[in-house]
Amino acid sequence: MSDACHRGIFTISGDLPALEFPPTIDYEPLRGRIWTAADGTYRTIFLEGDHGVVCFDTFYSPGAARSYRGAVHRLFPDKPVHTIVYSHDHLDHTGYALDLAADANVIAHRDCAEVVALRASDGQKPADEVWDGERRTFEIDGVAFELVNPGPTHGTGNVAAHFPDVGILFMVDTVIPGVGYTFFPDWHLASYVKTMRRLESLEWDLFVPGHFWPVDRAGFRENLDYYEFIADAAQRALVEEVDPDDYPQIRAYAEDRYRDSHGRTFRFGEYFPMNLMRAMAHFRTGGWGLEDNTGVPAGTL
Ligand SMILES: [Zn+2]
Fold it and tell me: What separation in Å is there between the alpha carbon of 78 and the centre of ligand 1?
C-alpha cells in the first residue's frame, strides 16, 4: 500500500486495503460511440472521442477507478481520458477522479459541484467546468450529448446524460432494475417519482442505470410505479402499527404481506424490507431538507 492512496473522507490512519483493491471492470459496446463499464453491481458509460475518451463517473474507490482506467485503456490504448462527467456528488460513483485521470477536465452541475467543493474528499477532484439549469448540450472531441437535470431525485445535482441520436438515457442511482436500491440512501422521496417522470418526455428507448443492467421504457415506468407502491405500503404499515424502528419486524411483515405479489422481483428479500423501512421513515419524519421539500420543477423538460 502506498501513501498515495486517496482516502475519501476516511479519518482512520493506516492502509486502506479495501479502497486499494482493484476489482474487475468489464465493458461492452452499447450504441454509436457509447460503451458501458460495470463490475457486476456498479455501472457507468464512457464515450470514444476522436482523440480521447469521455468517462462518466469514476467508480467507488481508488482501486476501482484504476481498474476503470485499465478497462478503457485496453480498448483505446492511444486515447487518454480527457474528460470526466460527474453524475452526482456521491463518492461511490464520483469520488476518485484523481485516480481515474488526474488531468481530465471534470464537468458537473452547479449543485453537485458545490457539494464536492465543500466536502473536499481526498480523491474527488473539484469540478473544472460547471453548468447550471435544466439542460445543456455538450460537444467534446467529436461526441455530443446533453446533460439533463430534472430536479431533486437522489444525491445533489444528479443529472441524466441524454443521447437523442441513438436513443439512450443514462442516469445513476435513480431507476434501477427490480425493487429500489437498498435503503434509498439520499433519495428525495417527496417528489422523486414526479420529477423522474419528466424524463419520459425525452427521446430514448434504452435506459442505462448506475447499478445492474439497462432497461427499456417499460422497465423505467415499472420501477417508478414500484416507488408509488412502496409509498402506499409504508403508510399502511404505519397505520397497522408496524414498528418503524424494528427491522426484523418490518422484514417479517414484508415477507408475510408482499412475498406473494413481489417475491419474484430482483433481490426482493434483501431490498424490499429496506425500502419499506426507509419509506416509513419518510412518512414519519416528513422527508429531509430542502431537496425533499422544494417540489417538482414546473413545466416540461
Ligand atoms: Zn448516489
Answer: 31
Minimum mean pLDDT range among 24-33, 104-113, 165-174, 257-266? 257-266
Beta strand 143-148 with 53-56 is: unpaired
What is the reported pTM? 0.96
Q: Calculate the alpha carbon distances from 111 to 107, 146, 152, 238 in Å.
A: 12, 17, 10, 34
- Say if strands 34-38 and 26-29 run parallel, antiparallel, or are unpaired: antiparallel
CB neighbour list of residue 58: distance below 8 Å, 6 or more residues apart: 64, 65, 68, 84, 93, 94, 95, 96, 97, 99, 100
Name the DSSP letter for residue 42: B
Q: What grid cell was written down for 94?
A: 464520483
Closest alpha carbon to 174 in 140, 148, 203, 138:
148
Question: Separation of 90 CA from ligand 1 center, angstroms?
Answer: 5
Residue 154 Cα, ligand 1 centroid: separation in angstroms? 6
Separation of CA 95 and ligand 1 centre (Å): 11
How many A from CA of 94 to the centre of ligand 1? 9
| In contact, 96 and 105? CB cutoff 8 Å | no
Ligand 1 centroid vs 187 CA: distance in angstroms? 8
Using alpha carbons, select from 77, 121, 87, 129 the residue that is nearest to residue 104. 129
Q: What's the pLDDT tens digit per position in 156-187?
A: 999 999 999 999 999 999 999 877 889 999 99
Ligand 1 (single-atom ion) residues, CB below 5 Å:
90, 155, 173
